[in-house]
Write a structure and sequence with these properties.
The protein is mostly helical and 147 residues long. The chain is built from 9 helices and no strands. Helix content is 71%, strand content 0%. The longest helix has 16 residues, at 3-18.
């Protein structure tokens, strides 16, 4: 095993030891100091051994972002930025799940308190907040009872 390959492996192990990473994230971090062809070979090896998995990364990422109060649109966009395949995004992020509405309601209640304001400006402010958090317009309408 060459010294450079060993160095790439050590750095990859260190990165993966702290948290899950998507393949693209690892590639970006490892390519800063190493040959890209060697990085690709090491990434293939890590994936083959099950040490790096975009599926595991997507599952972990979705769970952590839901816990932070983010909605499905924002989570999906972030996963795309991290190089996660659309099929994996669809697998772990079902936009139509009824619990998204409940989650949006919890996020709204935490920020603005329970109870919906009758005032149009307050509702608009709350809608913008939920939109920024990544909830769909349908989910926002249902939370704010705008139907």
């Amino acid at each position: 095993m060459s010294d450079e390959r060993l160095s790439v492996l050590k750095k990859a192990y260190k990165l993966l030891g702290s948290r899950e990473h998507s393949r693209l994230q690892l590639k970006r971090k490892l390519s800063r100091g190493f040959d890209e062809d060697l990085v690709e070979l090491v990434l293939d090896e890590l994936a083959g051994e099950g040490l790096q998995s975009d599926e595991r990364y997507a599952e972990s990422f979705v769970r952590s972002r839901i816990d932070r109060g983010h909605g499905p649109i924002r989570i999906a966009n972030e996963l795309r930025e991290h190089g996660v395949d659309e099929l994996l995004i669809d697998t772990y992020l079902d936009f139509s799940r009824p619990d998204w509405v409940e989650r949006a309601r919890e996020v709204r209640d935490k920020r603005f308190g329970e109870g919906i304001e009758a005032d149009y400006e307050q509702r608009a402010k709350q809608a913008r907040f939920l939109q920024y958090r990544g909830f769909t317009s349908e989910q926002i309408r249902r939370v704010l009872d705008l139907d």
